[in-house]
Amino acid sequence: MRAFLLALLLLLLSSMLHAETPPVITFDQGQITVLRDASKQLMLEQVRAARAAGQFRSIPGNPGLGYIPDAVWLHLSVERAAGQLPAGWLEIMPPYLDDIRLFHIRPDGQVDERRGGDRLPQSAKEEDYRGTLFKLTLQPGKHEFYLRLQTTSTMAAIVKLWQPDRFERQLRLDYFVYGIYFSLILTVLLFNAVNWLVSRRRIFLVYVGYLFLNALQWLGINGFVADFIFPAQPLLANLTLGMSLSLAAAMAFGFFIMVLELKQHHPVLYRISLVGMVLCLVTALATPFGYYGFFAPWMLGFGVLTLCSMPWPARRLWRTCDLWARLLAAAYLIYGVLIAINILGVLAVLPFSEAVNLAGMSSNIAHILLLHFAILLHYRRIETDHAVALEKSTLAERQAALDKTYREDQDKLLAMITHEIRTPIAVIDAATQTLEALDDTPSADREERYDRIHRSVNRLSVLLDLAVAQTRSEVADWQLTQGMVEPAALTDEVVKLLGNPLAQRIQVTAVEALPKLIGDDRMLRFALLNLLDNACKYSPPESPVRVHIEATGGGVTWRVEDNGHGIPPGMEERIFEKYVRLGESGNKAGLGLGLYLARHIVHRHGGTLMVETGRAQGACFVCWLPIAHPTT
Fold first, then answer.
1. What's the CA gap between 422 and 91, in Å, rounded?
2. Is the pTM of this model over 0.90?
């Protein structure tokens, strides 16, 4: 709020610059006539003859001809009545006019020649002033003035005749307003420098560079560089103005590329801005060699064309409804309109006046206040989001560490349990074999019991291996042990491992003369056991599970069909991911690793495992394995 009130005060004071203490005469109402001197060789006598011949043309306001290489002659006159104060100070602005020659023709016909311009050191001027000021004595009668102007900058002039006391009052007000203006820029510059030192964000450093060059540019335009920084070195002051203006424009292109995110959202405008930046840098490099006047119109004209694209980024920002984005859009539009007015006035597209200079300076107020706060709000929000994300990341890491600890404890417990179970299983298996060896004449009933014990022991061993593999996901680390695998025999073995009553539900059909496969029968047994076990688990009790085996496409295909609820749409691939299970709300035990491991085993063998889609009832898993596969 304080900054906003300060801005209003500054704008109010700016409007008072030439309203509180007006000059005696402002030559802007058709009182000035102009003659262009392309040869730059005309003398006063020739110019007076040209005026007598009607070659001077009248202009409605201040002379503003843009960037032209010609010298320009102005003619104006003042009628002084008896009794008026004789002192009159003639002010010619802007300060960046290079060479100014004043020819004062007195009522008695005498000619008084004076010289000014920014090519003179301050000590050589009639008055140590940021512009050009001629102190005249105006006796009663008609006074004629011929002004010869020549410059490498824009050809423009504002001519005023002052009474000394009014000029002094106006000078104090001018310097007060300029002091507030540049103090505001310095404050924002230092604030952003601190932001860069703290955050190390490049946008703040670029903004600091832009503010510095921008402030230096306006110091030069208003004559303060020549008046205070290089009073005895006018050429250096002139060079500083040209280079600071070009570099500030280049930095403006770079700054708005970053703050408007043109590369991400407006690639065409991004490339156009890069061209503008290059043109500004070329102008800066050409300035020390005397070519500023040639490149400056192209640079400024390209800048106006670029400003015509303002609605697109501003519209995108406004539609986000974020406060920082809307502040940025408003600041960008206000800045663009004001700086466009300034540039068009400098290029003589619009009439040149003091308002043109005021528009350019006011554009800084728009982006220094609104845009500055928009950037702060934007990056404060980024910092807040970053802190929240960092906190979430820390919590996720802690949770991951807890999960890892839990799984490690689970693995240890499972390893201990499986170790303890394997011992009695081995004892049972050994005891059964001993009994078989001691039984010389076993009956059919005892043979069946021996076989049942062997099948149960084998099933327990396989299930223990599968449980360990599911928990540790150690299938990924297995090395393939290749051998000949008979598909039908492998399927029968897996069905037997299921045991009754599950085995009684399995209906296997296979074509004759199935080709043998090359693979790891242990891993394939795991995969097929998972498929059959899942089919039994997720289908109604006593309902059949159909397994069809056939030779297709240089390999063997298993189709495992059940009469369950089927696979929900959209889950056809997700069920093969780790820890994803169907029926989470039911009583189906498992870790959600069975299908993941089954597909991994099949892929390791060069095959495919997928769910058949479009079924009205039940699920059908299709497993295809090639006859031969690359060794892995």
1. 108
2. no
The answer to whether 510 touches 491, Cβ cutoff 8 Å, is yes
Does 425 reside within a domain? no
DSSP secondary structure, 452-487, as one string: HHHHHHHHHHHHHHHHHHHHHTGGGGPPP--EEE-H
Across 193-210, average pLDDT: 87
CA angle at 338 for the pair 274 and 370, rounded to the nearest 5°: 85
Handedness of CA 592, 593, 598, 600 (dihedral sign): positive
55-90 b/e (C-beta count within 10 Å ≥ 16 → b) = ebeebeebbbbbbeeebbbbbbebebeeeeeeebbb
Q: For the chain, give the percent of residues with pLDDT over 90.
A: 46
* Of 199-203, 269-273, 322-326, 423-427, the least confident: 423-427
Q: In this predicted model, what pLDDT tens digit does every residue of 266-296 receive, in sequence order? A: 999 999 999 999 999 999 999 999 999 999 9
Show the tokens assigned to 237: 């002051």
Q: Three-state SS for 270?
A: helix
Q: What is the CATH classification number for the domain harbouring 516?
A: 3.30.565.10
Q: Are 99 and 149 in contact (CB under 8 A)?
A: yes
CB 65 within 8 A of CB 348: yes
The number of CA neighbours under 13 Å toward the Cβ of 626 is 10
Within-domain flag for 379: yes
Residue that finishes a domain, picked among 162, 184, 199: 162
**222-272, pLDDT tens digit by residue?**
999 999 999 999 999 999 999 999 999 999 999 899 888 899 999 999 999
Q: Two tokens at 544?
A: 């059949």
Q: Which two tokens stand for residue 581?
A: 């299970």
Which residues are within 8 A (CB) of 420 and not within 5 positions of it... i.e. 6 or more apart?
none
Per DSSP, the three-state class of 258 is helix
Q: Report the phi/psi class of residue 630: left, alpha or beta, with left for phi > 0 and alpha for psi in -120 to 50.
A: beta
- Considering the domain architecture, whether residues 248 and 368 belong to the same structural domain is answered as yes
Q: Is the dihedral of CA 513, 514, 518, 519 positive or negative?
A: negative
157 and 182, same domain (yes or no): no
Between the two ends of the chain, the Cα-to-Cα distance in Å is 71
* Same-domain status, 223 and 368: yes
